[in-house]
Amino acid sequence: MLHEMASAAIRTAGLSKDYGAERGLFDLDLQVSAQEVFGYLGPNGAGKTTTIRLLMGMIRPTAGSAYIFGLDCVREAVEVKRRVGYLPGDVPQFGSLRGGEIVAYLGGMRGGVDPRNVRSLAERFDLDLSRRFREYSSGNKQKLAILLAFMHRPDLLILDEPTSGLDPLNQQEFYALLREARDDGATVFLSSHVLSEVEHVSDRVGILRSGKLVKVAELEELKHIRVHRVEVEFAPDEKIPFDRLRALTGVDDLTVNGQRVTCTVHGAFDGLIDALASHAVVDFVSTEPSLEEFFLSFFGEKKRKALPP
Amino acid sequence: MRAVLLGLRLGRWGIVGFSLAGLFLTLVQSIGYYQIAGHTAAERANFGAAIAALQAQFVALFPPALAPETVAGYVQFRAYNPLLILFAVWALASSSGFARGDEERGVGEASLAAGVSRVWLIASRTIAFAIAVTVAAVAAAVGFALGVASGHESVEPQGLIEATALLAAVGLACYSLSLLIAQLVGARLATATAGAFLLALFLINSLSRVFDSLLTLRWLSPFRYYDLSQPLPRGGYFSFGGFVVLLAMAVAASVAASLAIQRRDVGGSVLRLPALERRPTVEPATAAWWRIPVVRDLYELRLGILAWAVGMAVLGTVFVSLTRTIVQALQSIKALLPYLSIFAHEDLYPAVLGYTWFNVAQLLFAAFAITYVARWSAQDTDGRLEMFLSAPVSRAAIVLERMAVLAAGAVIVSAVSGVMLFFVSQQQGINLNVGRLVAASLMLIPFALVFAGAGSLLASWNPRAAAGLLGAFAFASYLDTELGPIFKLPLWLQDLSAFKLFGTPLLSGVDTRNLTLMLLLALAGLGSSILLLQRRDVGA
Known about the structure:
The complex is a heterodimer. Chain A is an alpha/beta fold. Chain A has helices at residues 2-7, 48-55, 77-82, 99-110, 115-124, 138-150, 168-183, 195-201, 219-225, 242-247, 270-276, 291-299; strands at residues 8-20, 23-33, 37-41, 63-68, 71-72, 84-87, 156-160, 187-192, 204-209, 212-218, 227-234, 251-257, 260-266, 281-287. In chain A, the strands form three sheets. In chain A, strands 6-7-8-3-9-10 form a six-stranded mixed beta sheet, sandwiched between helices. The longest helix of chain A is centred in the middle third of the chain and has 16 residues, at 168-183. The two termini of chain B are 33 Å apart. Chain B has 22 helices and no strands. Chain B is mostly helical. In chain B, helix 14 runs antiparallel to helix 18 and helix 16 (395-427) runs antiparallel to helix 22 (512-535). Chain B has helices at residues 2-10, 12-36, 41-57, 71-105, 107-113, 118-150, 157-184, 187-207, 222-227, 240-262, 295-300, 302-331, 337-340, 345-381, 384-389, 395-427, 434-461, 463-483, 491-494, 498-502, 505-508, 512-535. Chain A binds chain B through residues 53, 56-60, 77-79, 81-82, 84, 86, 88, 90-98, 100-101, 103-111, 113, 115, 118-119, 122-123, 127-131, 134, 148, and chain B through 104, 187-188, 278-287, 290-293, 296, 300, 382-384, 386-394, 535, 537-540.
């Protein structure tokens, strides 16, 4: 236990930030090991950004404590930040400064930034540092924020919804960068409201709901609890294997409408694919449910009442 | 209609603040009048003569006072003239805040996306400001009426209505003109260009009272049409034509702004400087100053500091040029001769220059500090502070660096304007004591630091309200010097005003006690702001 605590990159105990009206973060007990990629999943307003700001010492906890590499996030904030790379949820506004000037400014504040690393990151994301921040598209602003978080090769990366605004190609590049950082020994704490994203890059996932950590799952476990909505369209004369599909483990909510079958699939697709393999299928669409649907499915929560018109 | 309401909603703090400023200024000046003007006709006549002598020193700023021996004439001179400048500044801040600030925050884009046409966007905000400035002008009228009632006198309703309408009209004209300028130039330059434009219009009119060469240009200035009326005192006059010209100016500038906004991209400008070709790069900036605290901020602020330094130097030059005229005007008042003979002939020039220029310089340095505090607040709300704090620097270091940057900027501006003042006064044959000129110029730095300390405290406590509250603090400090002796406020309360602590260093050198007090006030602000920022949530 002592060894675990010593090697923890992030450790919180009873960490709370109460904004009133049941908003905030409550009693967070969390431990993230060194060199782990920890996905922090939750819908909007669940408390992800609050957790991150507490870890970064931007806000003070109402109760509890947080430590990064054994350093107190409030009392030893400066030391903590020597080892952390931070990507905020909202990219700050740098007005008319050029990209290269912003890097130099923040690099100058931090110290120890290798220009070769900056160059490599900018090349990788095809980011022109000669342009003014005001002229950047939202995607390019996000790329700059990623560069600022990674430029000093930190031991811990705290990233608040890092892929928002990135196109799919740059998302893939970002995932690759994360994996490399982890392979180089970095720990990653990554918040997201996209299930597939955290599943894609994380070793473990913490699920936050209404300010409370409701589940910490290993990647394998997550794969079992994940849910997809599937629509299958069979060829016009094809007989639909309804009974076989209904009998499959993890397949629920089966409905048939003509040659179109819809269902939800929990966990892996193997059984469904096997069942369909000998049939003529003309269309197969799998969509990831929203987090709301995920919570409904996984936690058996009641659907929120619609607001009156 | 919703767009008008949105404009009023977004500008609500301006409406509240400037209405209170208007109410307070006219109220305290009219109450103050009864405290100092005396009660008999003879006492009041003497008082009027003293005000006439005082206004001779400000002829380059404000028109001659009409019937200053009456409460209405006194308030017209002491309250409505400063309110003119105050409302022009409000118009500038509000118009550039709408035209550029809202656009940068996406409010303008959201309004256009919601189906509001560009023409209506301009019209609705102009209408909203017209309502706002009318409310504030009415508040000023209420303050005057209450003040006069405290002296058991009555106001001339027609004059008060005319003064109110005139103040609202000139404010609206300034708003529309600034709005037009903000469409023409890019976001970076909008506020500075519109501010320079309004300042130029103000100076063309006010300096035309001294320099005949400007008489042919003053018809361009909205302030000229304000000067055509002095409706408040009994026997005053109101130029209906001038009032109509102000409204026509506002409408014409709004129409031109509507045409201009249709010809530019959202976020763009009508006039575009040819952009320098820059090769794409993946290299960070390599200049050494980015690694040096304070210097990196000075580099980032270089254009602003340059503008302040040049602007102050030019204004200083104007005031030196005016000094001879002012001294001649003072010497032509026979009643003042015994008083003036107290000064040796050589001392009169520094006395006047010290009184006029360094009074204006104090106001400008207070404004300089307020712009920096507004920048600190913006850093807090736009996420830059959060980004700075993600680097291994303490909150105390951030506060200290901010203050050091402001102090360094103030050193540059005061040095440039001081050197300019020295050379121009030499040219004009005005012999200034070099040591005292240096001391007076340097005193502007602790003066600015007092406001920086107060601003730092406010920015640490509530960044969104800091600039507005610091503006109110500056206003209260200025009133403190004006009203402290009149209302016999305790000395310690008067000493809280940097305007009072600045003293008259050009004439009598630096008062060490006052300098120490200013530094202590600045340090108190600095220390308490560090403590507050360390306890405050950032980015929440």
